[in-house]
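Q: what sequence does this backbone want?
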């Protein structure tokens, strides 16, 4: 049974930092592209960042470029999202996801999803 468990969410003031983790089990981790998505209240789910199986290739949405960094540790079967210079508009539930194909920014490319962790940025 595949499980993705996010942690590290919380409340931070604008300009602050948070680091999210997503621990995976039940899958051959190094064979999967990993992604982070987020969903704010009343809005559709939005792609944030993704990383290839080896970690050698990453993509991210323009709004987080230069502020968010996605990394992975295949030995620890964990993917991370380091977030700096947080803004109130970053407030959302953040989800990690695992997909069996090439790196992608669409949710349909990801077969497995975590339950999410809340990130709240106060102004």
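A:
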């Amino acid at each position: 049974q595949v499980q993705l468990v996010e942690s590290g969410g919380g409340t931070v003031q604008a300009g602050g930092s948070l680091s999210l983790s997503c621990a995976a089990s039940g899958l051959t981790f190094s064979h999967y592209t990993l992604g982070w998505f987020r969903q704010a209240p009343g809005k559709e789910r939005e792609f944030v960042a993704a990383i290839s199986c080896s970690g050698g290739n990453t993509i991210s949405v323009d709004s987080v470029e230069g502020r968010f960094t996605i990394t992975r540790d295949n030995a620890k079967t964990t993917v991370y999202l380091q977030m700096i210079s947080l803004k109130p508009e970053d407030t959302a539930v953040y989800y990690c996801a695992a997909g069996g194909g090439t790196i992608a920014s669409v949710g349909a490319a990801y077969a497995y999803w975590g339950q999410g962790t809340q990130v709240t940025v106060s102004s």
